[in-house]
């Protein structure tokens, strides 16, 4: 097809609809209510972390710097024992205080970027005037990879509870249906 600029309407409509759907899912539906829990005795845990003055980033524990460093047998055994005893986890430290407005704006920018990539891919694969179901299939496949593709790896590698996988996949399927349906509906007609 022609230029990505021709798809401004489906890109904008899709981005707004996915943003609204994500807001409804997270605020109105109960499926994410148990995704996060408060720390018991939060001050006793957070104050020592605050005193460490950690820079923003993701920290893993227990930690052994295994990248490019040859560990002695004693270091390997000590590290294996820490993992055996547990717990293991990751700690994400963000910069400053949490800014909900900035986070929502960044989320919308992410959706807009994903939607532009989906529009590009679909426009390379299909001409103007393509049938609704063809557009739905191509845009939907790309959207499913974008919105649900990371859910399983987060459970595998980041320790995200497996009980959260169905809700994450649900979100991805809803965003996919909105994206595919919007592109199919607003796909440009053939010239002529």
What can you see in these coordinates?
This protein is mostly helical. The protein has a domain at 4-38 and 98-186. The chain has 7 helices and 2 strands. A two-stranded antiparallel sheet has the order 1-2. The longest helix is centred in the middle third of the chain and has 26 residues, at 100-125. 18% of the residues are buried.
Short synopsis of the structure:
The protein has helices at residues 8-28, 42-52, 73-85, 100-125, 132-148, 151-157, 165-186, and strands spanning 57-61, 89-93. The chain is mainly alpha-helical.
Number of DSSP helical runs: 7
Strand content: 5-15%
Along the chain, the helix and strand elements come as: HHEHEHHHH
User: What structural class do you assign from the helix and strand content?
Assistant: mainly alpha
Mean pLDDT: 91
Largest sheet: 2 strands, antiparallel
- How many strands appear in the DSSP assignment? 2
Strand order of the largest sheet: 1-2
The percentage helix is: 55-70%
Distance between the termini: 14 Å
Sequence stretches where pLDDT stays below 50 over 5 or more residues: none
> Rough shape?
elongated
Cα-atom radius of gyration: 22 Å
């Amino acid at each position: 097809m022609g230029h990505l600029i021709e798809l401004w309407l489906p890109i904008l409509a899709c981005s707004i609809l996915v943003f609204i759907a994500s807001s409804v899912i997270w605020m109105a539906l109960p499926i994410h209510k148990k995704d996060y829990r408060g720390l018991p005795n939060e001050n006793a845990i957070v104050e020592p972390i605050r005193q460490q003055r950690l820079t923003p980033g993701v920290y893993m524990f227990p930690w052994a710097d295994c990248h490019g460093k040859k560990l002695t047998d004693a270091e390997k055994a000590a590290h294996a024992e820490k993992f055996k005893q547990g717990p293991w986890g990751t700690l994400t430290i963000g910069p400053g205080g949490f800014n909900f407005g900035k986070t929502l704006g960044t989320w919308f920018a992410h959706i807009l970027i994903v939607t532009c990539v989906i529009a590009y891919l679909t426009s390379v694969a299909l001409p103007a005037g393509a049938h609704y179901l063809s557009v739905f299939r191509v845009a939907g496949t790309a959207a499913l990879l974008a919105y649900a593709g990371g859910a399983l790896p987060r459970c595998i590698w980041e320790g995200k509870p497996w009980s959260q996988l169905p809700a994450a996949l649900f979100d991805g399927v809803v965003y996919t249906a909105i994206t595919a349906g919007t592109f199919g509906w607003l796909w440009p007609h053939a010239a002529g």
